[in-house]
Amino acid sequence: MTEPERTPDGRFIVVNGRRWRATDPEIPEEAAARLRSHLMRARRDVGAARRDQDTDAEREARARVHTAKVALGERGTPWWDQDSAERRERWQHGLDALS
């Protein structure tokens, strides 16, 4: 899989002309891989809940998607506005919450 285009400052990726916040590059690869795994599982669970018309399960799965996205630095306070300690706390908290 090829890497998506990035803005010159590295803060965003560009997909089909649209900018999306990039994952925090300070997250160790093993932790980032675990967070992406949680994110993908939660997204699959959103789809399953929607097919089953289970609003409670969908709400719970969407909350896990949000937790993973925040932990990856793709939502919430921009990672470039946080110091290293805050960034580590953010992704570690997400791993703890999702595990």
Strand numbers in spatial order across the main sheet: 1-2-3
- Report the C-alpha radius of gyration, rounded: 14 Å
Number of helices: 3
Low-pLDDT residue intervals, each spanning 5 or more residues:
none
Overall outline: globular
Give a written overview of the molecule.
By secondary structure, this protein is mainly alpha-helical. The protein has one domain (27-98). It has three helices and three strands, in the order E-E-E-H-H-H. The protein has helices at 29-51, 55-71, 84-98, and strands at residues 5-6, 12-15, 18-21. A three-stranded antiparallel sheet has the order 1-2-3, with no helix packed on it. Helix 1 packs antiparallel against helix 2 and helix 1 crosses helix 3 (84-98). It starts with a strand and ends with a helix. It comes from Amycolatopsis magusensis.
Please provide a brief summary of the model.
Residues 84-93 have a biased composition (Basic and acidic residues). The chain is mostly helical.
Question: How do the helices and strands line up, and which of them pair or pack?
Answer:
Layout: E1 5-6, E2 12-15, E3 18-21, H1 29-51, H2 55-71, H3 84-98
Helix pairs in contact: 1-2, 1-3, 2-3
Name some characteristics of this structure.
globular, single chain, Biopolymer transporter Tol, 99 residues, 3-stranded antiparallel β-sheet, 3 helices, mainly alpha
